[in-house]
Amino acid sequence: MFFGDYQMLLLISGICGLVAFSMTFLTMPRLINKLKDAEIVGKDIHKPTKPIVAEMGGIGILFGFVIAMFVGIWLYPAYHYQFLITLIVILLVGLVGMVDDLVVLSSKEKLILLWLAGLPIMWIAPPNVGIIYMLSMPIAVSIGANLTNMLAGLNGVESGLGAIAMISLTISVIIMGKYNVAIITMAMLGALLAFLFYNRHPSRVFPGDVGTLIIGACIVLVAFIGRVKIIALIVLLPNIIDATLKFYSAGVVERHHHAPTEVGDDGNLVAPDGGFNSLIRSVLRRPMPEKNVVAIVWFIGIIFGAIGIILAYTLNSMII
């Protein structure tokens, strides 16, 4: 054999990343046109001209990820069970996102539906774990998906943060020798990077809930399958901080009740007076361009991503 088992898995993870990137990148132009034709669009409220932008572009992320995971199953069937469970959960979470994009679910409805979508993750629970651990798995899917759905709204912030999280998780699982999990992270990373090309400032398409929800669900799946829960928690800290600020300042409020971030005459974003606090509004202590706000949020994600990698290296060294 020219390749060892781990080398083969690394090669397959790279292939899956390229497949996901290619499928999403090539699909997006046609998908954007189809969404506009179907009038599945929204206003980019953070631009002075309020341009109309296609919504639900996360379908492209979902498509690229699903194709890449099927390629992973075909190339390395030894882990087909874990990969199939991952696919089922991501598809169900994506379906919840599509419903929410089209009819707007309440926070309670979304939490319940995401919990139901996460139930299949219990099939990959380690043996001899208690009922509390089992029940916590779909709850974690619901919470994780909502976390990545909450820190959103600016061009590229969701897909960029998601890509940063996947880079951190990919490096972490490789350091810890969990090469099969790298197939999952690389598949999502490839799809997110391709989508970011269209979602970056100025956005041609928004991810919608179908895109933002599956990012968090994927992080939770990686946490349980790869047993890297602490690292996954660390890469989610920007989202956790954002959610904490919102709950502490306003409690649970439906998103359509939120006052949006304002746009000044010079095109800079301005935090509105009063209302809830958030990570983005904490960054907006003074008016600044949208691109700068997104870059700062990404940088925060990079810091926590780096901490996750350092922790993975430290834990692996302790085991060795």
Instruction: Give the class from helix and strand content and strand pairing.
Output: mainly alpha
What is the topology, as strand order, of the major beta sheet? 1-2
What are the low-pLDDT stretches, counting only 5+ consecutive residues below 50?
A: none
Estimate what percentage of residues fall within beta strands.
Answer: under 5%
Q: How many beta-strand segments?
A: 4
Which overall shape is indicated by the principal axes computed on the Cα atoms? globular
> Total number of helical segments?
12
Biggest sheet details: 2 strands, antiparallel
Helix content: 55-70%
Number of domains as seen in the coordinates: 1
Q: What integer value in Å does the Rg equal?
A: 19 Å
Instruction: Report the average pLDDT across residues.
Output: 93
Kindly, what is the distance between the CA atoms of the first and last residues, rounded to a whole number of angstroms?
27 Å
| SSE string, helices as H and strands as E | HEEHHHHHHHHHEEHH
Structure description:
By secondary structure, the chain is mainly alpha-helical. The chain has one domain (5-230). Helices cover 69% and strands 3% of the residues. The strands form two sheets. It has a two-stranded antiparallel ribbon. Strands 3-4 form a two-stranded antiparallel ribbon. A hairpin with a 5-residue loop joins strand 3 and strand 4 (269-270). Helix 2 (58-75) packs antiparallel against helix 7 (179-199), helix 3 (80-103) packs antiparallel against helix 4 and helix 6 runs antiparallel to helix 7. The two termini are 27 Å apart. GO terms for molecular function: phosphotransferase activity, for other substituted phosphate groups. InterPro entries: Glycosyl_transferase_4. The chain crosses the membrane at residues 6-26, 52-75, 81-99, 111-136, 156-174, 181-198, 210-237, 293-315. Pfam families: Glycos_transf_4. This is Multidrug transporter.
